[in-house]
Design a protein that fits this description.
With 151 residues, the chain is α+β, with helices and mostly antiparallel strands. It contains 4 helices and 5 strands, in the order βαββββααα. A hairpin with a 4-residue loop joins β3 and β4.
Amino acid sequence: MKEFSKTLATMTRPFSFVHKTLSEFGFVRPKTHENQLYVTTFADSITQRVYTLAIPTRFLENGHTEVYLGHTRFDTEEEPPSRVVEAAICRMKELADYLNQPNKRPHTVETASNGYMATDSYDIRRLGNEMKKMKTNSELKQTGLIPDPIQ
């Protein structure tokens, strides 16, 4: 599992932006590793072998994700051919350029993705943890606060 590019930086971006960008580049979050890893594969047509490339990430409590591009590695015992490594480095540099772009929010209701509170199991767990930390209406009243909105 050799890391192949220390020249790429660690980036912190909103989770939705990171997930969308990595998904568009063909990366997926496997069920293992507590969803802290994104992986994709590179096929070598000469050797007929497939190599798995892994990007480690870390989810932050503020809804952002750290992407450790400099710690990207092939998940194999032997060294992949140089042509596969070069293709991966090109894709990683392009990915870094996309992740460096400003996160543009939808400006109109028509362009917004409304109706989705959570798009995957990670979002569901994150929202559940946020709800656990929220005070109930009776707890708010005990501290002298008025629940808002009153329902």
